[in-house]
Write a structure and sequence with these properties.
Blueprint: H1 2-21, H2 26-38, E1 43-53, E2 56-68, E3 71-76, E4 79-83, E5 87-92, E6 97-102, H3 113-118, H4 120-123, E7 124-134, E8 137-146, E9 152-160, E10 166-173, E11 177-188, E12 208-211
Parallel strand pairs: 6-12
Antiparallel strand pairs: 1-2, 1-11, 2-3, 3-4, 4-5, 5-6, 7-8, 8-9, 9-10, 10-11
Length: 213
């Protein structure tokens, strides 16, 4: 009887240890990350982008993304892309042109972290690759593979294991190009004026407006 009790205890203990050490599923990691972003009223981050092909760096630039729920404001390389939930607009400084579209026609929405995470299971299949270290932080690497035809065959997310926020995204395009987005600064709940997301012609002297709605 005593031996049976010991064996049962060891069996239960080994099961508990195994459960504690079991690697997280992709769904649990992504859902936790989505919850963290959804809990924020606003957030912003500075990022760097590196474009490479055949291990050669082709391009490098910096940008800023500001998000307030479904709204966002993205600026990089003399370009502004924003969506106020009703319309999406894109301003090009080099030509001083602004194009305006319906919000649902926004092809850049996939780069909105909350929209991408909230609908990941409809658009992608996900798999945890491994745990690693990035910028001195422990990260969980998750690969997203698009279910529909896209310009890329894989999106790799590097998610901070402690904060659950995304630290880096690598896009693997069909032509062999890789695009790496790295978050250099993250700010939760900054004060944001809603006018930031809405196009105002008076803000751009002499701008040519192409209304595509």
């Amino acid at each position: 009887m005593f031996n049976r009790t010991i064996l049962l205890f060891l069996f239960l203990l080994s099961g508990a240890i195994f459960a504690q050490s079991a690697p997280p599923t992709a769904a649990s990691v992504l859902e936790k990350t989505a919850q963290k972003y959804n809990a924020l009223a606003t957030f912003s981050f500075n990022f760097t982008v590196t474009v490479e092909a055949k291990e050669k760096k082709l391009h490098n630039f910096e940008g800023i993304l500001l998000v307030k729920k479904e709204k966002y404001y993205l600026t990089f390389e003399d370009q502004i892309i924003a969506n106020d939930g009703v319309t999406m607009w894109n301003y090009q400084k080099n030509t001083n042109e602004a194009s305006i579209f319906e919000a649902e026609d926004d092809e850049f929405a996939m780069f909105h972290p909350v929209k991408m995470l909230n609908g990941w299971n409809k658009e992608y299949t996900a798999k945890v690759i491994r745990e690693d270290e990035l910028l001195k932080n422990k990260v969980i690497i998750v690969d997203l593979t698009p279910k529909k035809q896209a310009a890329f065959y894989k999106m790799r997310l590097f998610i901070n294991k402690t904060t659950s926020y995304i630290q880096q995204v690598v896009m693997y395009e069909l032509d062999g190009t890789t695009i790496t987005y790295t978050v250099s600064k993250f700010a939760p709940n900054p004060e944001v004026d809603d006018r930031q997301f809405t196009f105002n012609k008076n803000d751009f002297l002499g701008v040519e407006v192409n209304d595509m709605r």
